[in-house]
Write a structure and sequence with these properties.
Elements: E1 2-8, E2 20-27, H1 30-38, E3 47-50, E4 56-58, E5 62-69, E6 74-78, E7 82-88, H2 93-102, E8 127-128, E9 131-132, E10 137-144, E11 150-154, E12 175-185, H3 206-220, E13 228-232, E14 238-239, H4 241-250, E15 256-259, E16 262-265, H5 267-273, E17 280-281, E18 284-286, E19 293-296, H6 302-320, E20 329-331, E21 336-337, H7 339-347
Parallel strand pairs: 2-5, 3-5, 4-20
Antiparallel strand pairs: 1-2, 6-7, 7-12, 8-9, 10-11, 10-12, 13-19, 14-16, 15-16, 17-18, 18-19, 20-21
The chain binds flavin-adenine dinucleotide and uridine-diphosphate-2(N-acetylglucosaminyl) butyric acid.
């Protein structure tokens, strides 16, 4: 366990924005994680677990303990039909996917190059190119912050949805994911439904799918090691059929997909059609290649990002009547905060 006081967080989150926290602690074992939560010197402070910081924006100085997840280890078992992986929460997700491809363990390749830790993957049920974490998840192990026992949830119990899971609701702030179990079939079939993947032959290999995904992502998404960002800033809004029909009547070109509870609309398209690609406030800008991504173009502050996000929100709402919800988690002084709180404050 390493402890740092008043640590600058810019190296610990992919937006790369200057912001500090009162205490930063690294944890390598579940026992250390428990020690941090039980330590009397930090009892009164808010605490949050951080993976690779690829889905967060620290909006202010964090007056609490940031716990860096460094739980490492991967176990692989197999039977006649499946590979079973048990992955500790602090393992890197993109490294895991690449390693599986190199070991001829197929099934994760569509989720290549998604930054973050394996333990963060279930939180928002990461997804890309036709697959979500729930499609490969067998179980999730979490440390219950009330009993300090590790509890296993099977896939159904995780209540996965689009960028959603039980960890954002019933278990919010009551659980730390310490490990995930993946179940990957040996009867692998490529998943090629998503647009650009259709160019691949149905006889393609997992490595070919992996390479294709890496190629698409490298072209579209900014590399956070060079340009700070947190991936898609907003979620794609899911509209009711009636709301969608109204929108489509006025904007027949709107890009949409069927969703389990309505119609999912491409937020990137909505933002792009507002003419916002490249739009900049302070050092924060809308990415030129992908309007759903906010970048730290030039020493952006958290306020630059918030003001830009507010401008995007208002522009889309005024033009289409669609309220965007941010996917990126805003971490305030001692708790999570939301853009609509900030928008309301501006109005009053
Ligand atoms: P962090 O940002 O560190 O944490 C995110 C939230 O989860 C925080 O609230 C944190 O407190 C909480 N948390 C983290 N670990 C735990 C834990 N062990 N237990 C409990 N709570 C925890 N996402 C997609 O779904 N699909 C994509 O295609 C995609 N592409 C991206 C591309 C880029 C370039 C970037 C920068 C991001 C992208 N993302 C994508 C978002 C991001 O990669 C995922 O949300 C990822 O799972 C975040 O992992 P992390 O370890 O960085 O989480
Ligand atoms: N589009 C535009 N202009 C843009 C961006 C997008 O017109 O600037 C339109 C295009 O028509 C495109 C459509 O929007 O066909 C969808 O765009 P894209 O395929 O790039 O996907 P996305 O909906 O913007 C989602 C996820 C990504 C994930 C990709 C691939 C969300 C919020 N985002 O993006 O996840 O990688 O699909 O599956 O669901 C993330 O969550 O951080 C993330 C990057």
């Amino acid at each position: 366990m390493q402890i740092y006081l008043n640590e600058n967080l810019s190296a610990y989150h992919t937006f790369g924005i200057e912001q500090s926290c009162q205490v930063l602690v690294t944890v390598d074992t579940v026992a250390e994680l428990i020690d941090v939560y039980r330590d009397p010197q930090w009892q009164s402070l808010p605490k949050m677990v951080l993976g690779k910081g690829s889905n967060v924006l620290f909006t202010e100085f964090y007056e609490g303990v940031v716990i860096l997840n460094q739980l490492r280890g991967i176990d692989v078992r197999e039977d006649e039909n499946h590979y079973f992986l048990h992955v500790q929460g602090g393992e890197g997700w993109p490294e895991l996917v690449e390693w599986c491809v190199s070991q001829q363990i197929p099934g994760l390749e569509n989720l290549a190059m998604i930054p973050g830790c394996a333990g963060s993957a279930p939180i928002q049920n990461i997804g890309a190119y036709g697959i979500e974490f729930q499609d490969v998840c067998d179980y999730v192990d979490y440390l219950c912050l009330e009993t300090f026992q590790v509890i296993r949830l099977n896939r159904a119990e995780c209540l996965f949805g689009y960028r959603d899971s039980i960890f954002k609701h019933q278990l919010y702030q009551r659980a730390v994911v310490v490990g995930v179990g993946l179940k990957l079939t040996k009867a692998w079939q490529p998943r090629l439904k998503y647009g650009p993947l259709q160019q691949l032959a149905s006889s393609c290999s997992p490595a070919e799918v992996f390479d294709c995904i890496c190629d698409i992502r490298t072209r579209k998404l900014p590399d956070p090691t060079r340009i700070g960002n947190a991936g898609s800033f907003f979620k794609n809004p899911v509209l009711t059929e009636a709301q969608f029909q109204t929108l489509a009547a006025n904007y027949p070109d709107v890009v949409s997909y069927p969703a389990s509870s309505g119609v999912k609309v491409a937020a990137g398209w909505l933002i792009d059609q507002c003419g916002l690609k490249g739009f900049q406030i302070g050092g924060a800008a809308i990415h030129e290649q992908q309007a759903l991504v906010v970048i730290n173009r030039q020493h952006a502050t958290a306020l630059d990002v918030i003001q830009l996000a507010a401008h995007v929100y208002r522009s889309v709402y005024e033009k289409y009547g669609v309220a965007l919800e941010h996917e990126v988690r805003f971490i305030g002084r001692g708790s999570e905060v939301y853009l609509d709180m900030w928008l309301k404050e501006q109005q009053s």
